[in-house]
Amino acid sequence: MSGLRVAGRGRKARRTFRHGAGNGLETGRQIRFTFDGKSYLGHPGDTLASALLANGVRLLGRSFKYHRPRGLLSAGPEEPNALVELRQGAAREPNTRATVAEIFDGLIASSQNRWPGLTLDVLGINGFFSPVFTAGFYYKTFMWPASFWEKVYEPLIRRAAGLGRAADAADPDRYEKITAFCDVLVVGAGPAGLSAALAAAESGVQVILCEQDALPGGRLRGERTLIDGHPGWMWAQDAHRRLAGMTNVRIMTRSCVFARYDGGTYGVLERVSDHLPAPREGQPRQRMWRVVAEHCVVATGGIERPIVFPNNDRPGIMLAASVRTYLHRFGVIPGHRAVVYTNNSDGLRTVADLHHAGVRVVAIVEAGTSTAAQDLARQTGAALFSGATIANTFGRLGVTAAVIRDAHGREHRVGCDLIAVSGGWSPDIALTTHQGARPVYRDDLAAFVPAQGAGGSDLHVVGVAAGVMTDRGAFESGLRAGYLASGAVSGAVSGADGSGKMRLPDVNDAAYDITPVWQGPGTGNLPRAGKAFVDFQNDVTARDIRLAAQEGFQSVEHLKRYTTLGMATDQGKTANVNALAMLADITGRSISETGTTLIRPPVQPVALGALAGAHRGRHFRPFRLPPTHRWAEEQGAVFAENGLWLRAQWYPRPGETHWLETVNREVETVRNRVGFCDVSTLGKIDLQGPDVRVFLDRLYVNGWQKLPVGRARYGLMLREDGFVFDDGTTARLGENHYVMTTTTAKAASVMQHLEFCHQCLWPELDVQFISVTDEWAQIAVAGPNSRDVMRQIVDPDFDLSNAAFGFMAAADVTVCGGLRARLFRLSFSGELAYEIAVPARYGDALARRLMQAGAPYEIAPYGTEALGVMRIEKGHPAGAELNGQTTAHDLGMGRLLSGRKDFIGRRMADRAALRDPARPTLVGLKPLRADAPLVCGAHLLPRGAAATAASDQGWIASSAWSPTLGSWIGLGFLQNGPAHLRDVVAVHNPLAGTVTEAVVVSPVFVDPQGARLHG
Questions:
Q1: Strands, E, within 127-264: which ranges?
Q2: What angle, 0 to 180 degrees and rounded to 10, lies between the N-to-C axes of helices 471-486 and 191-202?
Q3: Number of other CB atoms surrounding residue 128 within 10 Å
Q4: Mind giving me the DSSP string for 780-837?
Q5: Which whole-number Å values give the CA distances from 578 to 390, 423, 437, 471, 575, in the listed order?
Q6: Per-residue pLDDT, 454
Q7: Neighbour tally for 909: CB within 10 Å
Q8: Cα 890 from Cα 731, distance rounded (Å)
């Protein structure tokens, strides 16, 4: 049995903090762990908090601002004080709540936010400067002298800010993401949640039950409640076993439902292996679930609140229900001389439970007057103070005494090492507010509860979360919600067995009464009073609340941001209601009138690694592989990233020693014989419907009403601001069937643009469309011999003659003996060319067949580099020219802008500044010395002008060595470009310190009449 040896007179005496087995422990086995370098023993089932408490460790941390000694306040995820670092090195995890961290053999934990140690923290001196560190002090201080900010103030603040230390290396753990669907999602495995899950599961629907704890039962684990004559936790265990045996139920423990989104979607974080020394092989540390549910039953229970009084933050001052949890679930005695301070009937349970565990209760302090407290005082021998408060506490590293102010104003100092406090229960309503539903305040509970119908008909709130404060009410509301959600029943639950019905268990019920008391005496401005903390984690005091109100921050939203109330890792779970009640009192309003802030996701802290899942490193932006990738690897291709794709850049052959030698060969092959290139990465969008032509007319600047079936057309899209968005071709394959192509880089953006236009701008249009980029492999076959090669591929009943299938033609065809395909007479190279599309799974086979069919014509594959050279030779604008800063006029496409219809961007494109001929427009550039390189990004200046910004007239957007012309060439933008044709400009490359003279020419360098592509 774990314990702590303390000094005695002349000998060592053992003081025991374990009092029994605890219903959540395996006491037959011990676990060794360390905290701040010291070794301790615990049991499987212990949290770090319970194990340390069992070893007599009460001091677990220091507060954020004042560095005051802090111990445990709670036993659950609402814990604001006991934040620790777990593990070491790259696996180090800061700000972990000791109350939810399960211990395992070899666990290394350490306290944080202290130096040099917990018992002696130098920054504890901050408490002496508390008059400076008041609410909003960061808005009022560090203002003078201004020069000190960067050199003195900011470095000091950054060094003092934060709590734990992030790991210095990459996270070594693995995370997963998964999606699940169900009919009913039940959140919480307490009595209400288990009842709802059983009722829904019995109806035969698919159920997912999520519980953030490792064990089912909720509050039943921390109480002596009897259900059907047996301990409540046994009923929970039995219900859990029954659910686990049902094939239509998935039980997820250690799984927090942290968010509710649109469409019945919920975010769930499953801590798969946090309780293990290391994940098992193939196992992630955490798993992020996206659960889509038809109905959700919220059975999240409640969160107990403290009462605000001077020095209420000392180690040993804990929430009353948490004391019971340590007693019953973990078999730990949090102290040996206890004071119980409560304003409600539930808090009085702690008196009886402490007495039953052998703890001496020296005083009962109740805000009101009750016969139950009187009976307990007689049974336990405790002094009873009715209508009283705690006025102060004492103790440096832990509470040693309480000052009780009775109903007559007299003060009594009582020695103690534990103060169990209960200020009432706040329903855990976070999930009900995530979509904007505001809770309502109930005076009888002194708490906010979900409004009637909050969250819609698919959300059912039960148990304490709904303001049902009795055990029987929890069972009843859970059963009813389970039946209702599953569609099995629609009315009240019967207490008798029957077909499709479940019996309500027999449980002792007690009413919940509360006398609202938010703060004790001395929490205002009395000089003798110590700090009375409202938000323990951010060190927000009652005085801060009053100061904020006095300075005009009387809105709950302003109060939160001015004081940092509820902005820490616990999100003010134990603080917010107390603060709002105090603000209401100060401003003379009711709590309902004061209102509350809404809770945003996540409900509990979520690791960034879990949000990212497997999307890290190369998987953050994984390569997409074209259909011919494996074949290209066999050909020895060199690959390069092109947007999201990994594309073949060039195909070197034996004997070729430089990439440019390979690219030149590929260009010459296409210009003189035939080559092919995988262009599957171009975006492809299939559009169908009677209004497609109208849709295209509004998207593109040029007209589409007269495009006949079997033809394709080039189109240019503008953004709403009049600048070029994207370009591509669209082919009409049938009466109401079109296929649009986009650039590789803008494929997703154009699809999003189409979705927006259809859903938001023109929902009345009868148009359907879908991205088919991944469904089709598309290969460009180009060169003088391309028609001869295509006749070996396309089935012979299709006429490929120039008269039957001319430039910009498009058709559905069959290839290679009956395989359906699409054929387009398009050319990006300027040569006679075709683009053939087959289902993606045949892309590899098509490449191999092209190599066979084209062998007599010396066919060769070419990569993106040769493709880029040929498009520059033909003056086709691409990514560097379509950079979001150019207009149709800049690109020499002003004549495309239709004056007979409206289209996106028309009005803005017509602005005088965008039509100004002095704007930089697209031109071609050839150096006077053919071998003088033109470098992208180089500046264009008048010949002989000084190299200054004032002389800058443009830039080079794209450049390449042209094997066709035997010269370097470039596409650039030059102010009033057409007026400078045949002029010589100076090309300045300031990075290399070079100046090259070049002549301004037409951007079309090869075959300006287009005779080749019409061949």
A1: 175-187, 207-210, 226-227, 230-231, 249-252, 255-261
A2: 30
A3: 9
A4: EEESTTHHHHHHHHB-TTS--STTTS-TTBEEEEEETTTEEEEEE---SSSSSEEEEE
A5: 16, 9, 21, 25, 6
A6: 80
A7: 23
A8: 26
The closest of 672, 620, 623 to 648, measured between CA atoms, is 623
Taking residues 855-875, what's their average pLDDT?
97
**Which residues of 395-476 form beta strands (DSSP E)?**
401-405, 411-415, 418-422, 425-427, 440-442, 447-449, 459-461
What are 870-921's pLDDT values in tens digits?
A: 999 999 999 899 999 999 999 999 999 999 999 999 999 999 999 998 999 9
Helix (H) or strand (E) holding 542: helix 542-550
Q: Which amino acid, 613?
A: G
Packing angle, helices 556-563 and 576-587, rounded to 10: 120
Per-residue pLDDT, averaged over 113-130, amounts to 79
- CA 245-250-252 angle, 5° bins: 115
Query: How far, in Å, are 416, 427, 439, 460, 786 from residue 299 at the CA level?
Result: 36, 10, 16, 9, 69
- Distances from the Cα of 913 to the Cαs of 839, 900, 910, in angstroms? 46, 22, 8
Sheet harboring 401-405: ordered strands across? 389-394, 401-405, 411-415
How big is the chain by its Cα radius of gyration, in Å?
37
Please give the Cα distance from 58 to 54 (Å, whole number). Answer: 9
Asked if residues 483 and 511 have their Cβ atoms less than 8 Å apart, the reply is no
d(CA 439, CA 465): 11
Counting other chains too, the contacts that 77-82 makes at CB distance below 8 Å and 24 or more residues apart are 77/212, 77/256, 77/573, 77/604, 78/303, 78/570, 78/573, 78/574, 79/49, 79/570, 80/535, 80/536, 80/537, 80/568, 80/569, 80/570, 80/573, 80/574, 80/575, 81/313, 81/536, 81/537, 82/49
Q: What is the pLDDT of residues 347-381, one digit of tens each?
A: 999 999 999 999 999 999 999 999 999 999 999 99
Residue 11: pLDDT band with limits 50, 70, 90: very low
The pair phi, psi for residue 877, each rounded to 5°, is -70, 145
- Distance from C-alpha of 565 to C-alpha of 279, rounded to nearest angstrom: 37
Neighbours of 428 (CB within 10 A): 24
**Is-cis flag, bond preceding 602, omega within 30?**
yes
Alpha-carbon 994 to chain mean position: 48
As a whole number, mean pLDDT of residues 405-424 equals 96
- Both tokens of residue 684? 């492809």
Q: How confident is the model at residue 504 (pLDDT cuts 50, 70, 90)?
A: confident
| List of residues 6+ apart from 766 with CB closer than 8 A | 689, 690, 691
Give Dmax over CA atoms of the chain in angstroms: 114
Q: Residue written as tokens 């035969």?
A: 204
**Whats the size of the chain, residue-wise?**
1015
Helices (H), 644-699: 659-672, 692-699
Query: Is residue 900 within 8 Å of residue 929, measured between CB atoms?
Result: no
Residue pair 235/63 in contact by the 8 Å Cβ criterion: no
Angle at 318 between CA 315 and CA 323, to 5 degrees: 125
CA 334 to chain CA mean position, Å: 38
pTM here is 0.81
Burial of 950 (0-12, 13-18, 19+ CB in 10 A): exposed
Give dist(CA 397, CA 831) in Å, integer. Answer: 85
CB 449 within 8 A of CB 432: no
Amino acid identity for residue 243 in this structure:
L
361 neighbors 355 (Cβ within 8 angstroms): yes
The owner of tokens 């033109």 is: 934
Residue 619 burial (CB count, 10 A) = 10
